[in-house]
Amino acid sequence: MSKILPLALALFCTIGMNPVEASELSAKPIVIAHRGASGYRPEHTRSSYQLAIEQGADFIEPDLVMTKDGVLIARHENEVSGTTDVADRPEFNDRYATKVIDGETFTGWFTEDFTLAELKTLRAKERRPALRFDTPQFDGTDEILTFQEVITIAQKGSQTAGRTIGVYPELKHPHYHETLGFDMVSALLADLEKADWSKRNDPVFVQCFWPAPLQEVKRRSTLKTVFLTTRWQPDQALMATYKLNYWPDLASSAGFAEVASWADGLGPSVDLLIVENPDGLAPSAFLHNAQTHGLLLHPWGINVEPELIPAPFAARADIAKGWNGIARDQAIKWYKTVFDLGVNGMFTDYPDMSASALRTEP
Ligand code: G3P
Ligand code: CA
User: Fold this and answer.
1) What is the mean predicted confidence (pLDDT) over 100-116?
2) Can you give the residue ranges of every domain in the chain?
3) What is the pTM of this model?
4) Sign of dihedral through CA atoms 317, 319, 324, 326?
5) Domain 4-77+140-359 belongs to what architecture?
6) Which of 166, 180, 220, 277 has its CA 20 to 30 A from that of 5?
7) Protein residues placing their CB within 5 Å of the ion ligand 2
8) How many whole angstroms from 300 Cα to the centroid of ligand 1?
9) 34 in ligand 1 pocket by Cβ < 6 Å?
10) What confidence category does residue 210 fall into, taking pLDDT thresholds of 50, 70 and 90?
11) What is the atom index within ligand 1 of the atom nearest the CA of 61?
12) Atom 1, ligand 1: which residue's CA is nearest?
């Protein structure tokens, strides 16, 4: 990793500083608890968020979808059979449905068909019981949280921990929700306003895989925005379904400049930042372009299970063998590898590993 650090630092020192303040770029990288400490507790639950705060997270992340009565709740999918006990609740059999969401077909139980009061009767469960075999012991304990409740956990957690814990909400399926008559951006801004966390310097980043909601957040507030990126982008049919005519071109420098006009940062899957060459791992052109345009970088997908580490890194023995209590130091080494790229933070299911990597000397 010694090859990556000098290059990252060199880029870091020469980048343009617009629109993100230089102080924000040079600040200590942040640990973003991805769905809470979701490597240890069922995701998006109070237990998961509280453990994340105890483990040293700076931000807690809720993915957001909507209830029938228009409340933002913390779930990764609007179809909740994978993360709740809804399939074992006969009183909700009549809600079983098949729907097309962002071009993909799903069958199950959908949050937009339930009121908040109904959803509050469900209990959360571990999404990956085979992989995270310690976590199912916590199944059946936690309820589904509203976004407002997640903000309160962060605000109260800040008081208890004696340091600022922020929120990092992600708007899931905003255009699909729009077709149902929901305005997620307005709901998000209203919740943040209610919590008095709607100003530029409040500890909030709004993230989305879709540009339009972030552009709207920028028009209507001074909140910080982060555009999530993968190698995926909607095909023409999906663009037409949602009447969209703009998608940024992140293969070109001009595309990054455009994104910097409505986003403060990028949230790339970590594989976009690193290339593997014969000498080892090196920063990618994507990383260079983002830093050149002054965009914060908060990658995701930094976990410890070999199954969840993106190819080609999972094939590297020194990284992939570092979990299940065998070699925690190897797992932390992977986290450090990512920080050494010069990123401004990372999303992780294991905030403790991330915090340890930040404390570890080179
Ligand atoms: O929000 C960052 C990362 O969480 C994006 O992926 O699918 O886990 O929401 P996902
Ligand atoms: Ca997310």
Assistant:
1) 98
2) 4-77+140-359
3) 0.92
4) positive
5) Alpha-Beta Barrel (3.20)
6) 166
7) 63, 170
8) 7
9) yes
10) very high
11) 1
12) 170
